[in-house]
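We append the chain.
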Amino acid sequence: MNAAGIHRLCVLILLALQLGLAHAQSAATVSSPGAVLSVIVNVNDEGRPQYAIARKGKPVIDASRLGFILADAPKLERNFVIDSQQTRSSDDTWEQPWGERRFVRNRFNELRVRFTERNGLKRSLDVTFRVYDDGVGFRYEFPDQASLHTVNIVEELTEFDVVDPATAWWIPGGEWNRYEYLYSTTPLEELSQAHTPVTLRTDAGLHIAIHEAALVDYSAMWLRRVEGQRLKTVLSPSASGPKVVRTAPFTTPWRTLQIADSAGGLAMSDLILNLNEPNKLGDVSWVKPFKYVGIWWGMHLNTQTWEAGPKHGATTANTKRMIDFAAKNGFRGVLVEGWNKGWEADWFANGESFSFTEAYPDFDIEQLAAYAKKKGVHLIGHHETSGNIAHYEEQLEAGLDLYQRLGIDSVKTGYVADAGGIKAKAADGSLRFEWHDGQVMSRHHLKVVTEAAKRHIAVNAHEPIKDTGLRRTYPNWVAREGARGMEYNAWGSPPNPPEHESILVFTRMLGGPMDFTPGVLSLKGRDGLQIQSTIAKQLATYVVLYSPIQMAADLPENYEKYPKPFQFIKDVPVDWSQTQVLNGEVGDFVTIARKDRNSDDWYIGSVTDENARTVTAKLDFLDEGRRYTAQIYRDGEGADWKAKPHAIAIETREVTRDDTLTLPLAAGGGAAIRFAAGRR
């Protein structure tokens, strides 16, 4: 054994002793390729499977239970022994068809442990750990066996026992408004039940994010604090009783822990993507990142309506006006909500009236699709379901066929319903009420995505199941909502606070792209409600909150009112070859640099919370020996989201990678910069 191997063995033995794990000499162990993280797996004296994690020899996750409660068989929890263990290493690099960076390195060491009951049914359960230098993923694998062929899971017993005192950023799980809550910032000991990702910062400064990857045909994981800092998995409910029903062999989603010295380290991690399977769709060159405008913000302002009538937004004339605006300003797409029949009456309550093939009489979809094509613009379809997937699935293929025929190559889906209000058909044809993130919806979303892929249509899901990196496997699943977006700034009570975006980067965004719909330059919501942002921060959000589709959400007349800031929205790309988090703290501020995939230009976005601050940005990410023109959009003199939100300074200067920029950010403010590549 070489020196590195001896060091790893010593670390693992020390970890076992520190955590008090029984039978340390027979534990299954694995370390990350750079010996940063170590995992030890064992059974205690009662035969309960457990694992623990250390970072650089210091415990991070104390001994934490593994197992399941079943509906029709004894629970998988105790009387186990480690029957076998296997290890392997892998190091490869794969290319994203679109994303925050073009190439992703996937380097890990893997441990696969088989637990077998020492008495009774002698059932077996495998657990596979993949250990990276910046995180750990583990999942259960149910082998096919006579004693456990059909698996009816009532609850998963997975735990995460965090060692050091920590602050947590979290939203409640199991409440009526799905994922659309403001984040709480509390001691971890005050967390109740939360959706993931849950992000933690220990008192010593270590950052940990707990989430899941590859959520397929399974119920989503919530986290409930059971005592101290010990978190336990709670699976989203099912109307049928068992929360998950599967036939062996199968694997669960990965349970993930991203672990880094800094908040930026969490945002730079590719753990979630790497734990998903490679692209299953083949050639996906038809999936196009793009910016879009739409008939949408007016409805949230209550100046237009989804349903037909005197204020109907989706008319032929209004849509032509939006197509003309998009063509003039270089936007690929025009989203049209409210085009289809069924928005009258109480659509929120049932969704049974929606047609996904019939337009309102004042919306000529055939003429508009042709008009858009002539202008070099694409209509973006909209399928609001009100959570009635039983009704939607009956028309799904016909609705997508219509879009394919008309050249509409992307669709925004919606599932507006209270949590627990999804209407789905059971096997006997009866109507059941499910949760947005239960197994039924996990299956439904993939049905929509794969049916859309057959027709070369991209999907942007709102009121979705949470993002767990499935865009790697299904690259036409380009974005989703899954948090409070811009619409809360139109009518929210309260609207999104200034800290919101700097929390999202290190929480919700760790799962994947969000269709936040930024760019409201008027800074006004319904009835004059003040958006808690400066105009410069609206621009910075295009860089800070990643999505391969970005909306210019404001009304065209407001972009015409602010043409100089609007220029940045027209210029900023949505597809990147590189990304670097330059600095940031959860809920305070963040600065991100990204390189355009289709040019040599770089962009920076920086946002702050309610506190004015000055941040610095070293430009050493720029190419060596090259000069750039920095087009800077920053908060102007006296800028403040309350008193002077439209104060903006726009300036240019020549820079190289040897320079450092100082960016004064106003309260609720930000800065956006384009680095136009010049001569070498």
Observations:
- The two ends are 50 Å apart (CA to CA).
- The chain is about 20% helix and 35% strand.
- Confidence is low (pLDDT under 50) at residues 3-7.
